[in-house]
């Protein structure tokens, strides 16, 4: 009760003060309690047994007036009280008895809800008693008092001796503290007589929140999802949005300067979900964040250290920008989460001294609204595959404001941001150069990014095996000419394996008419393997045996054919030797130089 009155529990600091307190309590001491412990004092040894602490100052008291055998001590007797003879004792804190409060000159209560011209008129202080209840006197010409006969509390103008308002209590121990429904005696502040009006009487300042009971708490504990008021009223009426009179949610707000509303966009790409070479699409998980100000709205219960999130109901009461993501496969992206919040808590407006609502108002011009939408979207991207697997894909998507705004809303051209929070190194690609490209319109923006294909796995799975097959085919040129079966089987096998490898590689890419570098690579090796097979066909062991049989006939008949045949044999073998040692390596070397220089230029 002392706290509700804006006072502190009394703790005597000397024999003189203790005697003064006991003297003032003598008229009522017998009505306070039937036990020997009469009045609570503001001390306790709950924190440490035997060490009596001042409850308000939280420090050990220097003056004590316990009468032996007090204090008894123990786990239950932790609160100090004054006995009927003026000495002190310890008692169970749950017992009911009177209490004494100390009033300093600076202590006063505020009466809110009437139509006082000056704030000082709302201030009341405790002045004595009337009908065994406190009497509150205003700084000017009003008093609040209890009338035992009628069981009512009254607010009266002592200058005109007229009653302004009254309220009837349900029990005799009730006080006019906190938020109460009073009844007007006559016409008052534009309200007819015999009408219920809400008035509050508390010690709360304009920087505090008053609970319905009259308890005061810090404003930052209001609507924090915790019951800080004893009656829980700090979690009532926690709506954040307070639209002004005549607010129309279908109309976009104006800029503080009266110009076209400018929205600040921020795009956060959280991760690349999938990159599909076949369908030429890129799936992204991204957040679209749009920030703007709406001066038609006031906010309440904001937090300076974090954003204040609006409920679905509050989101439906205000204007929120509409936008589209262009180049989305299927037309519409999937919405994973949609949140509207208020950033910060700037320039609070304190309540009027007559207002019973103690909440602060935050102007919409000074506190930004933020729309945060998390999407899962698959965007189309025109892949350029000529340089595969050394390709760099340049993809983009567009953010467009609704055309219904008719140029009354625009995106900021200077304060716009795109960020990537994921890993730069993906499974098959690496991400580079994410940026917002300048566009000719202020109503949309284009986000661009590059995907550089990672060649390591492709080189190991495509180029290296094909080179090994080429080496195998080249090695068949060194097999003995009489081992035709070996040469034929090895040559055909390498060709078939290479063809299978090329087919599998092409299946990983979309079917396009574009000739790719990898196609040129496989085509070159296939042609070379085919040429090797042709060489094996025309340079055969059978042909050489027939030539040797002709050359070994008797010399009865002199002919020139054997000599010409020997010459032919020498030329065939010579070509084979030159091809396998010089010509084929030179062709392969030259092609590789040209091919890899082209790849480097692409990179």
Automatic annotation (TrEMBL):
<feature type="transmembrane region" description="Helical">
    <location>
        <begin position="578"/>
        <end position="597"/>
    </location>
</feature>
<keyword id="KW-0813">Transport</keyword>
<feature type="domain" description="C-type lectin">
    <location>
        <begin position="1"/>
        <end position="102"/>
    </location>
</feature>
<protein>
    <submittedName>
        <fullName>Neurotransmitter gated ion channel</fullName>
    </submittedName>
</protein>
<dbReference type="GO" id="GO:0005230">
    <property type="term" value="F:extracellular ligand-gated monoatomic ion channel activity"/>
</dbReference>
<dbReference type="GO" id="GO:0005886">
    <property type="term" value="C:plasma membrane"/>
</dbReference>
<keyword id="KW-1133">Transmembrane helix</keyword>
<dbReference type="InterPro" id="IPR036734">
    <property type="entry name" value="Neur_chan_lig-bd_sf"/>
</dbReference>
<keyword id="KW-0472">Membrane</keyword>
<dbReference type="GO" id="GO:0004888">
    <property type="term" value="F:transmembrane signaling receptor activity"/>
</dbReference>
<keyword id="KW-0732">Signal</keyword>
<dbReference type="InterPro" id="IPR023415">
    <property type="entry name" value="LDLR_class-A_CS"/>
</dbReference>
<feature type="transmembrane region" description="Helical">
    <location>
        <begin position="484"/>
        <end position="501"/>
    </location>
</feature>
<keyword id="KW-0677">Repeat</keyword>
<dbReference type="InterPro" id="IPR016187">
    <property type="entry name" value="CTDL_fold"/>
</dbReference>
<keyword id="KW-0325">Glycoprotein</keyword>
<keyword id="KW-1003">Cell membrane</keyword>
<dbReference type="Pfam" id="PF02931">
    <property type="entry name" value="Neur_chan_LBD"/>
</dbReference>
<dbReference type="InterPro" id="IPR018000">
    <property type="entry name" value="Neurotransmitter_ion_chnl_CS"/>
</dbReference>
<feature type="transmembrane region" description="Helical">
    <location>
        <begin position="457"/>
        <end position="477"/>
    </location>
</feature>
<dbReference type="Pfam" id="PF00057">
    <property type="entry name" value="Ldl_recept_a"/>
</dbReference>
<dbReference type="InterPro" id="IPR016186">
    <property type="entry name" value="C-type_lectin-like/link_sf"/>
</dbReference>
<feature type="disulfide bond">
    <location>
        <begin position="223"/>
        <end position="238"/>
    </location>
</feature>
<feature type="transmembrane region" description="Helical">
    <location>
        <begin position="521"/>
        <end position="539"/>
    </location>
</feature>
<feature type="disulfide bond">
    <location>
        <begin position="211"/>
        <end position="229"/>
    </location>
</feature>
<dbReference type="InterPro" id="IPR002172">
    <property type="entry name" value="LDrepeatLR_classA_rpt"/>
</dbReference>
<dbReference type="InterPro" id="IPR038050">
    <property type="entry name" value="Neuro_actylchol_rec"/>
</dbReference>
<keyword id="KW-1015">Disulfide bond</keyword>
<dbReference type="InterPro" id="IPR006202">
    <property type="entry name" value="Neur_chan_lig-bd"/>
</dbReference>
<dbReference type="InterPro" id="IPR006201">
    <property type="entry name" value="Neur_channel"/>
</dbReference>
<keyword id="KW-0407">Ion channel</keyword>
<dbReference type="InterPro" id="IPR006028">
    <property type="entry name" value="GABAA/Glycine_rcpt"/>
</dbReference>
<dbReference type="InterPro" id="IPR036055">
    <property type="entry name" value="LDL_receptor-like_sf"/>
</dbReference>
<keyword id="KW-0406">Ion transport</keyword>
<feature type="disulfide bond">
    <location>
        <begin position="204"/>
        <end position="216"/>
    </location>
</feature>
<dbReference type="InterPro" id="IPR036719">
    <property type="entry name" value="Neuro-gated_channel_TM_sf"/>
</dbReference>
<dbReference type="InterPro" id="IPR001304">
    <property type="entry name" value="C-type_lectin-like"/>
</dbReference>
<keyword id="KW-0812">Transmembrane</keyword>
């Amino acid at each position: 009760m002392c706290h509700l009155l804006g006072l502190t529990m009394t703790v005597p600091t000397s024999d003189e003060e203790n005697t003064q307190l006991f003297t003032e309590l003598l008229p009522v001491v017998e009505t306070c309690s039937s036990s020997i412990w009469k009045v609570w004092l503001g001390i306790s040894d709950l924190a440490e047994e035997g060490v009596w602490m001042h409850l308000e100052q939280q420090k050990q008291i220097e003056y004590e007036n316990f009468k032996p055998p007090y204090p008894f001590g123990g786990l239950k007797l932790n609160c100090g009280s004054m006995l009927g003879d003026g000495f002190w004792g310890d008692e169970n804190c749950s017992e009911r008895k009177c209490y004494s409060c100390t009033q300093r000159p600076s202590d006063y209560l505020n009466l809110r809800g009437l139509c006082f011209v000056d704030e000082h008129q709302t201030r009341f202080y405790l002045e004595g008693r009337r009908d065994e209840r406190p009497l509150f006197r205003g700084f000017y010409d009003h008093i609040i008092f209890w009338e035992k006969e009628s069981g009512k509390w009254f607010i009266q103008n002592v200058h005109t001796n007229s009653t302004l308002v009254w309220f009837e209590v349900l029990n005799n121990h009730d006080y006019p503290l906190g938020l109460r429904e009073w009844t007007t005696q006559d016409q008052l502040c534009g309200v007819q007589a015999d009408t219920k009006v809400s008035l509050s009487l508390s010690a709360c300042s304009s920087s505090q929140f008053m609970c319905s009971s009259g308890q005061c708490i810090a404003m930052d504990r209001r609507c924090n999802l915790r019951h800080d008021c004893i009656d829980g009223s700090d979690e009532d009426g926690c709506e954040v949005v307070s639209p002004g009179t005549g607010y129309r949610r279908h109309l976009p707000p104006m800029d503080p300067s009266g110009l076209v509303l400018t929205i600040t966009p921020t795009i956060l790409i959280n991760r690349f979900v999938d990159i599909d070479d076949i369908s030429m699409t890129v799936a992204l998980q991204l957040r679209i964040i749009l920030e703007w100000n709406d001066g038609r709205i006031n906010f309440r219960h904001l937090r300076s250290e974090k954003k204040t999130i609006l409920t679905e109901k509050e989101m439906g009461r205000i204007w929120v920008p509409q936008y589209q993501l262009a180049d989305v496969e299927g037309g519409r992206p999937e919405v994973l989460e949609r949140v509207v919040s208020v950033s910060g808590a700037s320039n609070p407006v304190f309540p009027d001294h007559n207002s019973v609502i103690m909440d602060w108002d935050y102007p919409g011009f000074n506190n930004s609204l933020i729309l945060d939408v998390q999407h899962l979207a698959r965007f189309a991207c025109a892949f350029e595959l000529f340089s595969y697997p050394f390709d760099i894909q340049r993809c983009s998507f567009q953010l467009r404001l609704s055309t219904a705004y008719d140029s009354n809303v625009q995106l900021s051209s200077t304060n716009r941001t795109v960020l990537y929070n994921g890993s730069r190194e993906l499974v098959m690609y690496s991400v580079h150069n994410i940026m917002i490209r300048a566009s000719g319109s202020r109503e949309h923006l284009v986000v661009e990014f590059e995907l550089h294909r990672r060649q390591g796995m492709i080189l190991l799975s495509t180029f290296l095996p094909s080179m090994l097959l080429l080496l195998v085919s080249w090695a068949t040129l060194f097999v003995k000419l009489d081992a035709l079966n070996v040469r034929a089987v090895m040559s055909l096998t390498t060709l078939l394996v290479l063809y299978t490898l090329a087919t599998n590689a092409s299946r990983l890419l979309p079917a396009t008419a574009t000739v790719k570098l990898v196609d040129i690579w496989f085509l070159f090796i296939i042609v070379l393997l085919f040429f090797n097979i042709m060489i094996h066909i025309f340079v055969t062991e059978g042909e050489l045996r027939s030539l040797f049989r002709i050359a070994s006939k008797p010399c009865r008949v002199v002919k020139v054919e054997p000599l010409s045949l020997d010459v032919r044999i020498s030329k065939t073998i010579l070509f084979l030797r030159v091809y396998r040692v010089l010509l084929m390596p030179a062709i392969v070397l030259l092609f590789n130089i040209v091919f890899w220089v082209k790849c480097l230029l692409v990179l």
